[in-house]
């Protein structure tokens, strides 16, 4: 376990060091491209060799005999549970999609209670040690980690309105991005986060009807909203295919289907029916592995609680095993999918260089080729835009000094509504 943790940290540091090396030094074209791609190729090999834990599901289990809560892993192929560590003082789990995994820090966060007091927990995935535990009095649901900016997004109800917010599990704080106008309730089990386009998706009630909402995580503005009448739940985003998978119960013949869901149109497409699966699933007990294209959920065959592991490409049941354990808050790693996505991006846009980094004053962006139109947005860790501009017919950009800011900022380059590059810039 310790060796796997070390491998995981080396890959994260390797990717970070590569980016810093390339952006801090204006070394162009073939040398930088070959070096970066070769290093990421090594990371991919290490990923597939050393990341056996990436196939595991992580969650929270209550031992009914002792009422003790444990942080556990579950093997989706066998339904076998492994207790990683007990969680001292915990007396309840807060439902509503409050669990998430920070893949950068290998930390699992969730909301639980301790003698009636709601706490926000952060747990080291390898050891099960509680890293942070603080009182959290906000009604926040639908927690989703964005691997593109390392931020957790969620929905907060302040009794009067619903808001899109960011959540910091270390400081145990929330930051409101915007009010979601018209929403009066949140449908549990319907949130997902599209890290490639920076969009948060969920279903909520507006005017007594259910709506599928698609939000921009930076501004909180509603990009798309569509009325929705079907029972589609258990939403999970595939970071490689850029697709949302979910479960649909067709109530007429009472058959369960795996479906893909389009957050922009509010339409879903059936992949196939799930053989032998009775209608119904265990809340907070579904997950998706982007690297293997497998959707896992705790459902039923007859009266028997069963863990289904599905091949999302053709909905064949890879494994189905009795699962009588009360494990909730399912989450899985998606390292391999993220590395694959980054390699695809590098192969297309690796000539984009940002330098110097760190920057004391202004900095430059070398695009590698001429773009008819390109936009640049620089924003802080809360998603607040600090600089934004659009350029025409250019091969390089010069960004003026952002004098009132210091520290870590994020940047995003877009052309023709397509993301060319995202990264970090340090202002000193």
Commentary on this structure:
This protein is mainly beta. It has two domains: 289 residues, Neuraminidase, CATH 2.120.10; 78 residues, Immunoglobulin-like, CATH 2.60.40.3080. Helix content is 14%, strand content 52%. Strands 4, 5, 6, 7 and 8 form a five-stranded antiparallel beta sheet that branches. The longest helix has 23 residues.
* End-to-end gap: 38 Å
User: By helix and strand content, what is the structural category?
Assistant: mainly beta
Structural shape: globular
The CATH class of the largest domain? Mainly Beta
Q: State the CATH architecture of the largest domain.
A: 6 Propeller
Which stretches are poorly predicted, pLDDT < 50 over at least 5 residues? Answer: 1-37, 39-52, 336-349
Report the mean per-residue pLDDT as an integer.
82
Superfamily (CATH H level) name of the largest domain: TolB, C-terminal domain
Instruction: Report the C-alpha radius of gyration, rounded.
Output: 22 Å
Helix content: 10-25%
CATH fold topology of the largest domain? Neuraminidase
Work out the number of β strands. Answer: 31
How would you describe this structure in keywords?
Immunoglobulin-like; 3 helices; 14% helix; disordered N terminus; 5-stranded antiparallel beta sheet; 428 residues; 2 domains; single chain; mainly beta; Neuraminidase
Topology:
Blueprint lengths: L1 H23 L4 H22 L6 E7 L4 E7 L6 E6 L5 E2 L6 E3 L4 E8 L2 E8 L5 E6 L3 E8 L4 E7 L4 E7 L4 E7 L3 E4 L5 E3 L4 E8 L2 E8 L5 E6 L4 E7 L4 E8 L4 E8 L4 E7 L12 E4 L4 E8 L2 E8 L4 E7 L4 E5 L3 H15 L3 E3 L7 E17 L5 E15 L7 E9 L2 E10 L1
Antiparallel strand pairs: 1-2, 1-26, 2-3, 4-6, 5-6, 6-7, 7-8, 9-10, 10-11, 11-12, 13-15, 14-15, 15-16, 16-17, 18-19, 19-20, 20-21, 22-23, 23-24, 24-25, 27-28, 28-29, 28-30, 30-31
Helix pairs in contact: 1-2, 2-3
């Amino acid at each position: 376990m310790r060796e796997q943790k070390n491998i995981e940290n080396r890959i994260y540091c390797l990717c970070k060091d590569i980016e810093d090396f390339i952006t801090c030094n204006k070394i162009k074209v073939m040398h930088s491209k070959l070096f970066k791609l070769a290093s990421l190729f090594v990371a991919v090999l290490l990923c597939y060799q050393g990341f056996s834990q990436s196939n595991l599901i992580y969650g929270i289990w209550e031992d009914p005999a002792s009422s003790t809560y444990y942080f556990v892993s579950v093997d989706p192929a066998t339904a076998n549970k492994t207790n990683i560590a007990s969680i001292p003082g915990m007396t309840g789990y807060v439902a509503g999609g409050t669990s998430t995994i920070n893949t950068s820090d290998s930390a699992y966060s969730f909301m639980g209670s301790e003698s009636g007091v709601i706490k926000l927990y952060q747990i080291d995935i390898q050891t099960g040690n509680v890293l942070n535990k603080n009182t959290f009095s906000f009604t926040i649901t639908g927690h989703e980690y964005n691997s593109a900016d390392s931020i957790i997004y969620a929905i907060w109800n302040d009794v009067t309105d619903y808001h899109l917010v960011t959540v910091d599990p270390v400081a145990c704080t929330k930051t409101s991005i915007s009010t979601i106008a018209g929403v009066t309730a949140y449908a549990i089990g319907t949130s997902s986060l599209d890290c490639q386009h920076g969009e948060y998706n969920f279903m909520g009630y507006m005017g007594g009807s259910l709506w599928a909402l698609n939000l921009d995580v930076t501004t909180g503005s509603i990009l798309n909203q569509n009325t929705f009448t079907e029972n589609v739940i258990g939403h999970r985003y595939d970071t490689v295919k850029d697709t949302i998978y979910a479960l649909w119960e067709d109530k007429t013949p009472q058959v369960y289907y795996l479906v893909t869901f389009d957050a922009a149109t509010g339409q879903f497409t059936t992949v196939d029916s799930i053989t032998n699966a009775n209608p119904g699933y265990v809340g907070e007990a579904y997950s998706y592995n982007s690297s293997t294209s497998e959707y896992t959920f705790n459902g039923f065959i007859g009266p028997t609680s069963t863990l289904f592991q599905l091949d999302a490409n053709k909905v064949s049941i890879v494994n189905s095993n009795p699962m009588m354990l009360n494990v909730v808050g399912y989450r899985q790693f998606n390292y391999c999918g993220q590395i694959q996505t980054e390699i695809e991006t590098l192969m297309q846009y690796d000539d984009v260089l940002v330098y110097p980094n760190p920057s004391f004053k202004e900095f430059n962006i070398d695009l590698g080729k001429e773009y008819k139109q390109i936009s640049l947005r620089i924003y802080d860790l809360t998603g607040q835009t600090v600089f934004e501009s659009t350029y025409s017919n250019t091969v390089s950009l010069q960004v003026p000094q952002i004098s009132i800011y210091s520290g870590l900022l994020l940047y995003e380059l877009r052309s023709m509504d397509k993301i060319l590059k995202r990264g970090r810039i340090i202002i000193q």
